[in-house]
Amino acid sequence: MSIVEDAIAAIDQDGFTIIRKLITGDRLSMLQSDSEALLINIDAQGIDGGIVQGRMHKGTFAASRAFDDIIIHPTLLDIVHGVLDPCRTGYPHEDEMNRYIESRESPDTRINCNIMIKDATPREDIRSMHRDIGIPVPRPHRPVVCNSLLAIDPFTLVTGATCVVPGSHKWESAEPPDMQDAIPVVIEPGDIVIFDGLLWHGHFPNQSFEQNRRCLNLNYHYRWINNFRNAKLPDDVWQNLPEALRQIV
Ligand SMILES: O=C(O)CCC(=O)C(=O)O
């Protein structure tokens, strides 16, 4: 099987997959400096009880053209289109899902990508376990969000790696798992973890005193989930974007 087929099969079975070295060399160095330039200070919960200085950037697509090629990276897009293929059949609760989509104000089945930069800063506490989608359709249902985190820094047990509960995208229950049941996603800069939005995930605390743990968060989802809209770009900027990008932002 190809990398793409393997990845789609792994997301089906385990809820997530890791692609190593999606971005390398000079492109990775540029990603690191472009992300650093955008990050904004926010208050975050500290491991030791108080507040620490966290960092984040939201609305990244409207603010920067530095990530356009990564949003439409061919391997990533092939995986996303495979996971979110509306023609794939055999999922439970398809009738309920179709009825729900038709009931939406705008039942648009094209895919959209929302872009953010996230940082788990030194001494920042956990991101608690959650799913990225909660719709009134019985679970398990077919993937409607395909989320991804492209590592800008090493994700380790010390720096607050993302954690996932393999197979939990197939759980019927809404009961959150214990973080102790989650496994760390240990990845290097340029590696990416891609997952079904129904998978229970979060991140461990960043126990280090000086290592940031930044990532580019590319969240692909059907447009009928309309809570992740990108801001509109000026016409002259929009006209100059590649067609593949315009279709997905
Ligand atoms: O930053 C992380 O490791 C987790 C991010 C996350 O939970 C999300 O994007 O939904």
Kindly summarize this structure in a few lines.
The protein is of the alpha+beta class and 249 residues long.
Q: How would you sum up this structure, described in words?
A:
This protein is of the alpha+beta class and 249 residues long. The chain has a single domain (3-87, 105-246), classed as Jelly Rolls. The protein has 8 helices and 11 strands. The chain has a 7-stranded antiparallel β-sheet with strand order 1-9-6-11-4-3-2. A 4-stranded antiparallel β-sheet has the order 5-10-7-8, with no helix packed on it. Strand 2 and strand 3 (51-57) form a beta hairpin. Helix 1 crosses helix 5 (74-83). The longest helix has 14 residues, at 25-38. The mean pLDDT is 96. Bound molecules: 2-oxoglutaric acid. 2-oxoglutaric acid binds at residues 118, 120, 127, 132, 147, 149, 162, 201-203, 215, 217.
In the predicted model, the low-confidence regions spanning at least 5 consecutive residues are none
The CATH topology comes to Jelly Rolls
The secondary-structure element order is HEHEEHHHHEEEEEEEEHH
How large is the count of helical segments?
8
Fraction of residues in H or I helices: 25-40%
Give the averaged pLDDT, no decimals.
96
Distance between the termini: 30 Å
Q: What labels describe this entry?
A:
249 residues, Jelly Rolls, alpha+beta, binds 2-oxoglutaric acid, 4-stranded antiparallel beta sheet
